[in-house]
Specification:
The complex is a heterodimer. By secondary structure, chain A is α+β, with helices and mostly antiparallel strands. Chain A has six helices and eight strands. In chain A, strand 4 and strand 5 form a beta hairpin. The longest helix of chain A is centred in the middle third of the chain and has 21 residues. The radius of gyration of chain B is 19 Å and the shape is globular. Chain B contains eight helices and no strands. The two termini of chain B are about 25 Å apart. Classes of the chains: A alpha+beta, B mainly alpha. Chains A and B meet through helix 1, helix 4 and helix 5 of A and helix 2, helix 3, helix 5, helix 6 and helix 7 of B.
Chain lengths: ~230, ~190
């Protein structure tokens, strides 16, 4: 309040989160300051609205509905949904090669990594995979290819620029607000690169970002992040 | 700091493509953007997961069928979808009311029921607006509004300076207001 205005106190004021003395001081200032009073008026209705949202947690959109919906739309169009067998056939053919590359380029650690299905039937059809770029403050970069699988998402991760030759263990998280699912852990090779194939139980569309952390770092320290 | 959801204009483009996009990609994108919150709204209103899934499917089918009549100047896509959902829930409740043996068919005053539905609809939109804030801003609002902590207590819990907590809370509310305005849910 030293600047003569109380704008930065107004968040706590409208949420009734100031100490009694602070609240009285803000109220007295609002009575004589049109500028702060106008700002207060813009925020004053928010607590009532927030009260309507208390306890509400937005669930994931049910995957089963998505598939039924697309089938219904295709049916009403008078056709069938386009299938993409070639893509999955190609994925199955190259899966063994990709796993072999992962074993060479980066050591995938056991815990948290779900074994990939090998010829265990068709993955859920029609959930489109995609790739995204991850960037980090330490100069590391990565590309992730996300593919739907029977158990969640198959994450192919190519990483460059990690500290070379270290023993650091990195963990991949698929996250949205208030929710996180691990896709597993890996180590970089002697050149600071890694290529790994991990699996998370989170399904495509259930998370908003991919985050790579170093397990030895304090919580909240990111090595790489990318918006899904 | 990027909002998780696209700007309304981008949503309107998605709706504009629904009828002509034979790949289904526009529908899939629209569903992934709004399916979760609309499912939450329907599930909360009906108390029945299967019924809520049917409602959400019906909502997006109606949106697809009537995409040509969507007018971006009249309502944001979210508002439009919520209105379709509201109608679908009311329809489902009416059907249930004449089919004894099914849940949620109490002969309650329909006006009161609709008013409750309107409030619930508002609540889910505010919950969606909160999701679009940065985690730091959302944390301040949740701790103060939902956990009832004072600015000083939040500073103690988070280890942040008291001044940072206060300014962050102010910015959080300003951001929330902007998001709500963009969604067409401006506070009075």
């Amino acid at each position: 309040m030293s600047s003569g205005h109380v704008r930065e106190e107004l968040g706590g004021y409208v949420l009734d989160a100031l100490e009694p003395g602070e609240r009285d001081a803000v109220a007295a200032h609002l009575a004589r300051c049109a500028e702060c009073s106008a700002e207060h008026a813009r925020l004053a209705g928010l607590p009532a609205l927030l009260g309507q949202a208390e306890g509400l947690k937005i669930p994931a959109a049910p995957t089963v509905v998505e598939e039924r919906l697309l089938d219904r739309v295709a049916s009403e169009r008078g056709g069938r949904r386009a299938r993409r067998p070639r893509r999955w056939a190609a994925a199955r053919l190259t899966r063994g090669r990709a796993l072999a590359a992962g074993a060479l380029a980066g050591a995938v650690l056991g815990a948290g990594v779900t074994a990939l299905a090998t010829g265990g039937g068709e993955p859920p059809a029609q959930v489109a995979g995609y790739s995204l770029a991850l960037t980090g403050a330490e100069g590391a970069t990565a590309r992730a290819q996300l593919e739907p699988g029977r158990e969640g998402t198959e994450v192919h991760l190519w990483v460059k620029g990690l500290p070379p030759g270290g023993e650091a263990v990195y963990e991949v998280h698929c996250e949205r607000s208030g929710w996180s699912a691990s896709a597993g852990t890996f180590r970089a090779d002697a050149r600071g690169n890694a290529y790994v194939v991990l699996t998370t139980a989170a399904r495509l569309g259930e998370y908003e970002r991919i985050r790579v952390v170093r397990r030895s770092d304090p919580p909240g320290t990111n090595v790489l992040t990318g918006e899904a | 700091m990027t909002p998780a959801l696209p700007r309304p204009a981008e949503d309107a483009v998605l709706v504009g493509r629904l009828r002509t996009d034979e790949t289904g990609a526009s529908m899939r994108r629209l569903y992934r953007l709004y399916g979760g919150e609309l499912f939450g709204f329907a599930l909360n209103a009906l108390g029945d997961r299967g019924g809520a899934e049917e409602i959400v499917q019906e909502v997006f089918l109606r949106a697809w069928r009537h995409a040509g009549s969507y007018d971006a100047d009249r309502a944001a896509v979210r508002t439009w979808l919520y209105q379709i959902t509201r109608h679908a829930i009311i329809d489902a409740r009416r059907r249930a009311a004449v089919r004894p043996g099914l849940p949620h068919h109490d002969p309650v005053d329909e006006t009161e029921s609709i008013a409750t539905l309107e409030l619930a609809m508002l609540g889910w939109q505010v919950a969606a607006a909160l999701e679009r804030l940065t985690p730091e801003h959302r944390q301040m609002i949740r701790m103060a509004q939902f956990r009832g902590l004072t600015m000083r207590e939040i500073a103690e819990h988070t280890g942040l300076p008291l001044g940072t907590v206060k300014s962050r809370t102010w910015y959080a509310l300003r951001s929330l207001r902007l998001v709500l305005e963009e969604m067409g849910v401006a506070p009075s």
